[in-house]
Amino acid sequence: MTEQIYLPDDIPAVGKKILTDAGFEVVVGTGRARETMKTEGANTSAVLIGTQPFDGDIMDAMPNLKVIARNGVGYDAVDVDAATERGIYVVNTPKALSGSVAETAVSELLAISKNLYQDAKAIHDGNWNYRKSHPGRDIEGKTIGILGFGRIGQQVAKKLSGFDVKVIAYDPFAKSTDSVSIVDRDTIFKTADYVMVHLPALPETEHSIGAAEFKMMKNDAYLINMARGVIIVESDLVAALKNNEIAGAALDVFEEEPLPVTNPLVSLENVLLTPHIASNTIETKARMAIDATNDIVRVLKGEQPEAAVNHLEA
Description:
This protein is α/β, with parallel strands linked by helices. The chain has 11 helices and 12 strands. 33% of the residues lie in helices and 16% in strands.
């Protein structure tokens, strides 16, 4: 019997072609709901998922499962320990989206600096003079602090290199370069005009940025989070924004996604909110599909995957 590959969400054709050319049957599902995945993926040997939770209960509903491919970098929604216990590989696509996420991060930095969203909205509201009481700011000469100096953080620094800014970063595993100084964590919050979060979602980073960090930040500083919503204590951020402890924030990720319109962040004027779009480009989706499906093929052909996040005993 031909092995099945289950896609709860469809992927670019280039990825599906890799799977069919390798001799597998591709099953495109109807959504990410837990029970839907358990039913539709019951006979699958591999699954390619997004950010939806994927735990041992779902794995047990897929007794032939050999590999869980994550279409992206973060794999915090996957119970990796449960997968490892069941002899299932977990793979991701760490090389596919760094440039795209960095581009979006810099775009949001510029957008909040120049107040682009609110100024554009003001035109639609018939308020041309809104701009007079809401001037933007130059980033030239400012200090940009990057939390997490991995692939994405390094790409952000590279893309900022032409803006005449000072870039500092915090990462216990990184070293200073000619253009970026590695500093301690508190220095990021105390001195940066823009704090850019590019940390992985780990137990030690969960809710690691809250009231204490916002109090360290300058009153005219901004927070930009392109990593995971769980890293921020959202209620503390709302308080800091309301009390003008910081100037504003640009957020692409949230603890609850989709973000409810009733969330207090939505009603604040000094935030830019985007719906987890940092890597949502045509080019990146294609690269992720290629990388993820190639690793699926490797595992099902008995080879080692290139981007495994867990280790299975031989």
